[in-house]
Amino acid sequence: MTVDIHDSWKQPLANEFDQPYFKGLVDFVKKEYQEHTCYPPGKQIFAAFDHSPFEKTKVVIIGQDPYHGPNQANGLCFSVTDGIPHPPSLINIFKEIETDLGKPYPKSGNLERWADHGVLLLNATLTVRAHEAGSHQRKGWETFTDSVIKTISKEREGIVFLLWGGYAKKKIKLIDANKHHILTSGHPSPLSANRGYWFGNKHFSATNALLQQMGKTPIDW
């Protein structure tokens, strides 16, 4: 079974594509996209991998579910298509970058520019039915994306993992902390951020400092 994913990921993840659960997942997703409006568009389901090839990935940010409103999701966690109003969590991400790095608040919420610099923006679930948050959870995506995290942990070294909020922090068990850098904080959603669990985490400057220590090019956040 062929999967429309960047060639660099096909060999590291080859075992997953042959698993029975993955075949069932593909069948489920195809049926959902045929019978319902789903996001992101089919060609962008694996966009996170297309923009951040396996060997070029330096940073991993873990989200939970794609946005479920029209024209929002583009296959990258927290990211929205050009011209779409910024969701609350993304607003708080940009506000933290403003205070952490002194960068001006951007017009576009499209994070492809991060992904193209080696930031894997990985949602745990890669698809969703329109206006039904979490509707494609527990169908197999989490098994696949957990395997992605484990594969990166095993095959690569010196990756910076940014785990925001309780859901993402649960992924710590999949990561070898002796080989990689793990930064955790509250989630950028208003519920968490307004209670003091997000702002001031300085994850963006900290990530770049770690990358520079390893001789890698920092991210242009």
UniProtKB/TrEMBL annotation:
Domain Uracil-DNA glycosylase-like: 50-211
Gene3D superfamilies in the cross-refs: Uracil-DNA glycosylase-like domain
Alphabetical keyword list: Cytoplasm, DNA damage, DNA repair, Glycosidase, Hydrolase
GO annotations of cellular component type: cytoplasm
Active site (UniProt): D65
UniProt-recorded Gene Ontology molecular function terms: uracil DNA N-glycosylase activity
Main location, first listed in the record: cytoplasm
Keyword DNA repair: yes
Domain of life: Bacteria
BP-aspect Gene Ontology terms: base-excision repair, AP site formation via deaminated base removal
Listed SUPFAM superfamilies: Uracil-DNA glycosylase-like
EC number(s) per entry: 3.2.2.27
Compartment(s): Cytoplasm
NCBIfam families noted in UniProt: PRK05254.1-1, PRK05254.1-2, PRK05254.1-4, PRK05254.1-5, ung
Family: Belongs to the uracil-DNA glycosylase (UDG) superfamily. UNG family.
Function: Excises uracil residues from the DNA which can arise as a result of misincorporation of dUMP residues by DNA polymerase or due to deamination of cytosine.
Protein name: Uracil-DNA glycosylase
UniProt organism field: Maribacter polysiphoniae
Gene: ung
